[in-house]
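[step 3/7] fold_predict: job queued, chain A
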Amino acid sequence: MYKLINKTISRVLRSPQYLILFVSGICWMRCRHCWYNEEWKDANLQHNQMTFDELSRLAESIPFLHFLSLTGGEAFVRRDIVEVAEMFARKTRLNRYQIPTSGFMTDNIVKATEGILKVNPGIPFRVDVSLDGPEAVHEEVRNIQGGFKNAIATIKALNQLKKRYDYFDVGVITTVSNQNQHAVEETGAIVEKVNPDGEWMVNITRGKPRDPCAIDVDVKNYIQAHQLIDQRIAEGRYKGHGGHLLAQWLSAKNAARRQAILKILKGEMRGGGCAAGSLGGVIFNDGAVFPCEMLEHSLGNIRDYDFDLPRIWNSRRADEIRDLIQDTRCICTQECFLSVSMLIQPRHWPNIVKERIKLMKTTSVEA
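[step 4/7] structure written:
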């Protein structure tokens, strides 16, 4: 059934509606938990980074794009990031977009963010800043001095922008790894203090990290993070996503997703029904197109298809990979692709509604 669903989605929509686009391979950090590390890039990136003109040709081929994540590396490294964001919004009829960042270069990030908000008025935009623990833990994880103070400064400065642009939102992402799993409660307290009105997204280390030990996480520590968020919701101290009408549905989906990840980690959830390669896709900074970050099967390089994404997305190779994903009942903890997969898996819908009701009760109590 899911083979037919995913093939139909790809044919009707022609291109992914949830696109993770790596616009840079450079990063200010050397995070221990990062899978997009030197070893991975040496083995997988075959060409130079796409230029602005090449990205523009790619955007011209996309009929409509619901969600775009401009990432890397560090997207804010690009001097033309404002122009890239404006160009994609204009050419793809973009509905919503986001940039994840380490938050290290505060002035650069805040200036670029405001520039993006000005050139794309009214389009929901979110910047997610990584925060992996209290100062000593964060800097051990990220291998850079001053990373914690800069990230905090960036979150605070972005929240000032949030007061001026009602279509802007600020999130905080914590990746639970072997190095910071003992500090989940402290991290949650810091996040609540510096980003009280925004979403706290808790990820878990995946892939082959720079430090192989980073992936050794005790599941009880991941559970603790979930419990902290649930407690804040129950006590009316958690607003979650903002900046657009469906924001709280995203927070509800994130809650249901954390529960799904927990089941995957415990071996309690079977694979199958993944929407990678249909609703969701990845393009790396050298133009390689993949159904998902965690898969080794490339659809090809966009440069070899004259930067025509619908053409490569609906190629015979793409159909074969989509079928392979379903045949192998592929399953992982990649948060973005769990999100899009939940949209076509009815088993998750009741839980998303349940979590949305929790947030509605919180809102009514505050009112």
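[step 5/7] annotate
The two ends are 44 Å apart (CA to CA).
Residues 247-265 form the longest helix (19 residues).
exit 0
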